[in-house]
Design a protein that fits this description.
Layout (H helix, E strand, L loop, with lengths): L1 E9 L4 H14 L4 E7 L7 E9 L12 E6 L2 H7 L3 E10 L6 H5 L7 H10 L2 E5 L1 H8 L5 H12 L6 H11 L5 H9 L3
Parallel strand pairs: 1-4, 4-5, 5-6
Antiparallel strand pairs: 1-3, 2-3
Length: 190
């Protein structure tokens, strides 16, 4: 088994923690894993991308163009930006909630993310758009978008890991007072 997964979003959305959970879950199963992260210029608002390669045959942590099995996108424009990495039969899990870049806000843009999700719907056969605003309202916290999207990816695609694998990683990495909330987010979809 080998899986190439890209996580992308903007700073402050929990992309790095999601990457750590995937890596920890893979290692706990005895699977080889390689990961690399690119963090934008700002801690909050800059682009964040993680490459996760699980299984045999990965000699570099970076996923080549056209080889990602799954893109888990925390922001619609970031999903579009990473599309060249997706293989032809790949899947995209994307948060419908946009985060307007500072440059767009300063320029008076009316970016709302819909044009990006519409574009993705035209280009991707296996697309799942998640209304994280609604989910987070029902869960009672906006701090679990990362785990919510991981749960959706496990439910909608084969990423080589189960919800139980991620639950165990949460138990090891996330402070105990946040376990119940994260477990509910993990199981919210699917």
């Amino acid at each position: 088994m080998s899986k190439n997964i890209i996580l992308c979003g903007v700073g402050g959305q929990g992309t790095v923690l999601a990457s750590k959970l995937l890596s920890a879950a893979s290692m706990a199963k005895g699977l080889p894993v390689k990961s690399a992260e690119t963090i934008g210029m700002a801690q909050r608002g800059g682009s964040v991308t993680s490459h996760i390669r699980i299984g045999d045959g990965a000699y570099s942590p970076l996923i080549p163009m056209g080889k990602a099995d799954v893109i888990i996108a925390f922001e619609p424009a970031e999903a579009v930006r990473m599309l060249p990495y997706l293989k032809e039969s790949g899947a995209v899990i994307v948060n419908s909630r946009p985060v307007m870049p500072v440059t767009a806000a300063l320029g008076g843009s009316d970016y709302n993310g819909k044009e990006m999700t519409d574009y993705l719907a035209e280009k991707i056969d296996n697309l799942t758009v998640i209304d994280t605003d609604k989910a987070c309202e029902e869960l009672g916290s906006s701090k679990v978008i990362n785990v919510l999207l991981l749960g959706a990816a496990i439910s909608k695609c084969d990423i080589g890991l189960s919800k139980e694998d991620i639950r165990n990683a949460i138990g090891r990495i996330v402070p105990e007072k946040f376990h119940a909330l994260n477990f509910r987010a993990l199981d919210y979809i699917g």
